[in-house]
Amino acid sequence: MQRAELAAWLRLALTPEIGNTAARRLLAAFGLPKVVFEQPPHSLEQVVSPALATALGKQPEQLAAQVDATWRWLEAAEKPGARQVLTLADSAYPPGLLQTEDPPLMLYVAGRIPPAWPVGIAVVGSRNPTPQGLGNARQFSRSFAQAGLTVVSGLALGVDGAAHEGALEGAAPGQLATIAVVGTGLDRVYPRQHLELARRIAERGLLVSEYPLGTPPLAPNFPRRNRIISALSQGTVVVEAALRSGSLITARQAAEQGREVFAIPGSIHSPQSRGCHWLLKQGAKLVESAQDVLEELPLPEGHKLTGTARHPDAAAARDEEPEDALLTALGFDPVSLDALVARTGIAPADLQARLLEFELDGEVARLPGGLFQRVAAG
After folding, report:
1. d(Cα 33, Cα 345) in Å, to the nearest integer?
2. Mind listing the pLDDT tens digit for each residue in 182-198?
3. Nearest in space to 365 (alpha carbons), one of 316, 356, 344
4. What's the CA gap between 99 and 108, in Å, rounded?
5. For residues 244 and 250, what is the distance between their CA atoms, to the nearest angstrom?
6. Pairing, β 260-263 against β 285-286
7. Which of these, 258, 154, 248, 167, lies nearest to 204 by C-alpha position?
8. Can you list the positions of beta strands (E) in the chain?
9. Which tens digit of pLDDT belongs to each residue from 290-308?
10. Cβ of 302: how many Cβ atoms within 10 Å?
11. Cα(373)–Cα(378) distance, rounded to whole angstroms?
12. 182, 190 in Cβ contact below 8 A?
């Protein structure tokens, strides 16, 4: 992309009150942004309102600074082509996103940009998941990557971060492991705790944003970016979600885009499971393993899964072994120490020592409020 072309696209995107819908009407009527800005007001008013036609005649105050910043960002890429700005007119624009009702005018992309967009599977969920939810996100994503899919998520704390980590663990050398769709400009990382994770994603996957450089982490941006997560994926897996969560927004958008929606069931007592249970009531597909998703996921014609997806329920091979009585009493719901004393008859001091052993072995997690939860082995 030449600098003048970039400036024209940025001017269209930054013009106040000109949203994606009006911009697409203008592009359909006149062609590229450069031609839009060459039109006299009366021609523009055939497509948009007089107020918008007037707005198009004024150059946004921040345009020059944004063009300079974006051009420097592109030139500062460590490898040629590792940073790009894709527009609706670009042949490399993701076809799955192009087919949605509200594709962004521009996409900022950084990382291992592929010649063709991969087959993606979205893995989303709570920012405050249970230990089991974190494990499920990581294990499912690892298996998806082993099967040759690219895991798409949002780089948020909790399930998103675990999904990206699992994909990076499971992807083969040279495979596009994961795509992180973020709610800020690509010149910053949010949350800051994921700075190192974002760096590794850029090396083996992609960072994607529709927001101009310098855009801070504004709350409305995150629900809005979810439509991109679902559009880049053949299906969306919700690991854990409260009844009011961004993950349910992603699931709804996936359904509206004609994608599959999968949900992992959880404890009826866990607030983080209620969103998944609601989705199941609405017709989402219940899944207990990555293999369940792989068997149901509609793949593009000619695409075949590669590698071997390890079944997350690897503990099945151990089911025939006798189970520890304390683990049986603990179950998989959060439980207090007093309740365990009542269930098992074990003295509190001895019970705490046993729980610590299981915690160190990764079979039990200590939760806020003095609760304990058994964690299924992966």
Report:
1. 75
2. 999 999 999 999 999 99
3. 356
4. 18
5. 12
6. parallel
7. 167
8. 83-87, 106-111, 120-124, 150-153, 178-181, 206-209, 235-238, 260-263, 285-286, 335-336, 364-367, 371-374
9. 999 999 998 887 777 876 4
10. 5
11. 15
12. yes
Angstrom distance (rounded) from CA 8 to CA 25 = 16
Q: Whose structure tokens read 């596009």?
A: 176
Three-class SS state of 359: helix
Cis ω before 191 (30° cut-off from 0): yes
Sorted by where each starts, the structural domains of the chain and their CATH numbers stand as 1-62 (1.10.150), 120-311 (3.40.50.450), 316-374 (1.10.10.10)
Please count the residues of the chain.
378
Q: Write the DSSP string, 1-43.
A: --HHHHHHHHHHHHSTT--HHHHHHHHHHH-SHHHHTTS-HHH
Dist CA 284 CA 260 (whole Å): 8
Give the whole-angstrom CA distance, residue 183 versus residue 185: 7
Q: In what order do the strands lie in the sheet with 335-336?
A: 335-336, 371-374, 364-367
| Token reading at 124 | 């989303």
> At 88, which amino acid appears?
L
Give residue-wise pLDDT tens across range 332-342.
778 888 888 88
